[in-house]
Design a protein that fits this description.
about 25% helix, single chain, two-stranded antiparallel sheet, alpha+beta, about 170 residues
């Protein structure tokens, strides 16, 4: 069952970042080794998608669905930043294999530090959980969902959350 946060200040168990709060800043390398900062997107909406591992079945299905529906995000003036604990080298191979045109960010070292800051790092397995944070143009978290292990996120939920955001 999906754990969605819709109300300001509410949060799923263990999630450190709640709706209505400023999104924690981060700086990570993308699949090309370029530095990507959340602050670079101020003035635009951002969808931060944490996923466990590149090349895994459910993750690939979710990111391919985003790839195939990228216009949904573009229409909401939303950048997609997909984050996993994989290295930038694995991210690049994954992006090339699947044709992802959005940034895949390497939360590789310190291992899972950004996922931990958002409260979606599973230290027992060493991977990010399936957490999504939709951040408005002012840097405020407007939507959070964390799915249980093995359950893909629903694109229709993204559509509804993005519809509630204003364009910059």
């Amino acid at each position: 069952m999906t754990q969605a946060v819709q109300q300001a200040g509410a949060r799923p168990a263990g999630v450190a970042t709640a709706v209505g709060e400023p999104a924690p800043a981060f700086e990570l390398a993308n699949q090309f080794g370029e530095t990507v900062r959340l602050s670079d997107f101020r003035g635009r909406n951002v969808v931060v998608v944490f996923y466990p591992f590149a090349f895994s079945g459910i993750c690939t299905g979710e990111l391919c669905e985003i790839r195939d529906n990228l216009a949904l995000f573009e229409d909401a003036d939303a950048a997609v930043l997909a984050v996993s604990v994989d290295s930038k080298f694995a991210q690049r191979a994954y992006a090339e294999k699947e044709g992802y045109s959005f940034d895949l960010l390497a939360d590789f070292w310190p291992h899972g530090a950004v996922a931990e800051r958002y409260g979606v790092f599973d230290a027992r397995s060493g991977m990010a959980m399936r957490g999504t944070f939709i951040i408005d143009a002012a840097g405020i978290v407007r939507y959070v969902v964390v799915n249980p292990r093995g359950q893909a996120r629903d694109l229709a939920e993204y559509r509804a959350a993005l519809a509630g955001l204003g364009r910059s």
